[in-house]
Each structure stands twice: as C-alpha cells, then as structure tokens.
Amino acid sequence: MAARHFLTLNDMTTAELEGLLDHASRLRKEWRAGQTRDTLKNRVLAMVFEKSSTRTRVSFEAGMTQLGGTAMFLSPRDTQLGRGEPIEDSAIVISSMVDAVMIRTFAHETVERFASASSKPVINALTDEFHPCQLLADMQTFRELRGSIRGATVAWIGDGNNMCHSYINAAERFGFHLNVACPEGYEPDPELLRQHESRVTVTHSPEEAARGAQLLVTDVWASMGQEDEQKARESAFRDYQINPALMNVADKEALFMHCLPAHRGEEISAEMMEHSSSAVWHEAENRLHAQKALLEFLILNRLD
C-alpha cells in the first residue's frame, strides 16, 4: 500500500481530520493523567530541518518518545541534502531506514519532491506556502474550548502567508468562513483564493474582519527569510495588530490564537498573551498531541 503523506490539510478528508482531532484530545487527556503509551515502540521518525524551530522540534521529538519511538534530528549540515544530492535520492534512502519523515523547509516543492520518492509517510512541518500541523493544533484547541468550528467566522489579521494559506484550506475542510485582513500587496495566493472564494473574504480593515468573529488569529509580520523586509513590513502592518480593542469588536466569547513566537508590541499588543480571550498556551501544547495523533494515523493507519 502506498504511503499516506500530510503535505497540506487537503491530503485528508474532513472525516479523517475530525477523527484525528478527537484522537488528539484523547491523547492530551491520557498524557495529562499520567498514562503511558507505546504504540510506536521501535519506530523511528527522521526530522529534516532546513528551517530552525523550537515548537516543531520539541513537539515531534517529545511526541515520538511519549509513544515509545525515537526521533532523529537531521540538519542540512549533517546530511547530503545540504550538499547537492537530489532530493529524490535522499528520499529513497532515508525512507528505507525509518518509519516516517518530517520536513521543515522553505520551498513547498521540496516536500512534494521528497514525498514523491518516499516509501514512508512524509509530514510537512512548515514550508513557505503551508503550515498544516499548526492548523491541527489550532482546530483541536477551538474544539476543546468552544466546540465545533463549523459555521463560525474566523478572522486572520496580518500577512497572507503560509499560516493564512493553511487557514484557507481549513475553512473548506472544517466548514467555517475566513475573513482575511491584510495591507494591499500582502494578500494570500490569488489561485488559492479563487479555489475557495465561497469560504474567504479579503479586506484591508482589521475591524471589518474581526466583527462578530469567534476566533482571531495572527502571525509575525516578517517570517523567517524575510528579515531584510522588517522595516518595510513594520510600516505596512502597523494598523494590523490584535489588541483588546479589536477583541471588543469580535464575538464576546471569541478566542485569540497565535502560532508563536510572538512579537509583543508588533502583531499583538503587550497584554494579549495573557488576555482573557487568549488560548495561546493551550494551542502551543496541542502541537504535541495533534502530531502524536497524526504520527499514529500515518504510521499505523489507525486512530484509537
């Protein structure tokens, strides 16, 4: 049987995603109750990092350990991937020795090419185009704190980046409407918008996007690799901050989320991390549990 990959949310059906999130919530409860689990005993996850990360490495490595398996950290300095070996050649060899591969890189084409040659499941742990693992954690968090997100309104405030793109896919998969508020010139990918035009509204007004929304989400103004654009982006995005005043425009039970790291005083005001609407720390922990559920689903083809 061909390996199942997770490169975007579109690689799973809505029913599969819903089942995965239910399982992730069970795993969270089990872990917090001190229960142990060894479903991935003697299994190995290769973690390929061309982009560095705190939460991605800790959550995948801890997750494999908690399931009885092992995670192997690989950087471009440690492998032939950083020395010009064709991606497909690396994929054939690495996948012959491990049970799954997680890749965090720049070009989305890299994970697509790796997956095309891999005999084992490949997980996109972030590319410049999509960040589906974070969406699993975000959707799990909303379900645990507010119930189903189907029919809700979500406001994305900021850059039309990889997180925004994955929220567009999530709007289709989970049945909510997404309002995207961004400055001119920073809109999401036009083709992706066209594909999901019934689910997404783009505006240049944060207040318009947030009005009545049940969830407000943002990300840093300059992502990794955009450091040279920092000053220009600070100017373009100065009015695109999530703060208590913007939360007051949203639904009174609205949640605030951020994939982290957060730059207080830029995309969020200093007090938002501790604001009564903030689900940021719950969301951050759920990267661990959502990815454990994903690993079991892809490696074992089960959710129980």
TrEMBL record:
Q: Where does this protein hold carbamoyl phosphate?
A: 53-56, 80, 104, 131-134, 259-260, 287
Positions that bind L-ornithine: 162, 219, 223-224
Q: What is its main location?
A: cytoplasm
Q: Which NCBIfam families match?
A: orni_carb_tr, PRK00779.1
**Stated name of the protein:** Ornithine carbamoyltransferase
Name the EC number(s). 2.1.3.3
Q: Which reaction does it catalyse?
A: carbamoyl phosphate + L-ornithine = L-citrulline + phosphate + H(+)
One Pfam family here: OTCace_N
Report the leader peptide range. none
User: Gene that codes for this?
Assistant: argF
| Alphabetical UniProt keywords | Cytoplasm, Transferase
Family stated for the protein in its record: Belongs to the aspartate/ornithine carbamoyltransferase superfamily. OTCase family.
Q: Where is the Aspartate/ornithine carbamoyltransferase carbamoyl-P binding domain?
A: 4-144
Q: Where in the cell is it found?
A: Cytoplasm
